[in-house]
Amino acid sequence: MRDWPEGCALIVGGSGGIGAAIAREFCRAGSKVVIAYRSREERARTLADELGERARTVKIDLESPSTIEEALEQIGPFHSLIHAAGARIDQPYISETRAEDYVSVLRGDAEGFFYLIEQALPRLRESGGSIVLISSAGLQRHPPGDILSVAPKAANEALIRGIAREEGRYGVRANSVRVGIVDAGMFPELVARGELSEAYLEAAKKNIALRRFGRAEEIARAVVFLASDDASYITGQAIHLDGGYSI
């Protein structure tokens, strides 16, 4: 158990595999949580029921600034903002990527994250809070066909570093966690549907120093650490949690 300031941990994308693990870990560490979802209300409510009185849910559409403002007013004070939202996207090579698709992911991910930060920063200044972004190990070692995923995350990481530099005077910290392949969320669904072959899975593991995929719980523990006072002198950093993929 850790001591937390007044308020809760707001987990955007909390109904997903990694987001749900983060919510559970915050609760284990003694924090209240708000599980923010866009469309998977049933999953979010089921998770909140599992976690009990420490958890509640809220709907947030990152492409709608007005709904973000309404949701944050409803939530009240929060000491941590975790951005774990993400959607499945196509994986074309850059030479095969359409400009409209590139612009679309930037708008959906990077622009949406900026809208969220725009509304959240004044509240985080009040609490001296922390932001943790779930990012991608692909920013260090580019996986072919992953440009639509890593490009918006690069923009989001630039924002994280800027926040760390500019908002530190208010006690606000901001960091990112660069994850590799994690056996959670969409990944096991793709495996179950046969969209990822055994040959692909074995080749992917060979690219990882530890020769296995990550677990959502491993990501969650790092996120809660970064949000807590145990990491009170860590800001503006990108922590690699990828089993050695990026080396």
Overview of this protein structure:
By secondary structure, this protein is of the alpha/beta class. It has one domain (8-240): Rossmann fold (3-Layer(aba) Sandwich), CATH 3.40.50. It is 45% helix and 16% strand. The chain is built from eight helices and seven strands; from the N terminus they run E-H-E-H-E-H-E-H-E-H-E-H-H-H-E. The chain has helices spanning 17-28, 41-51, 65-75, 99-127, 147-167, 186-192, 198-206, 216-227; strands at 8-12, 32-37, 55-59, 78-83, 130-136, 173-179, 238-241. It has a seven-stranded parallel sheet with strand order 3-2-1-4-5-6-7, sandwiched between helices. Helix 4 (99-127) links the parallel strand 4 and strand 5 (130-136). Helix 3 (65-75) packs parallel to helix 4 (99-127) and helix 4 (99-127) runs parallel beside helix 5 (147-167). The longest helix is centred in the middle third of the chain and has 29 residues, at 99-127. The model has no long low-confidence stretch (mean pLDDT 92).
Gist of the model:
The protein contains 8 helices and 7 strands, in the order βαβαβαβαβαβαααβ.
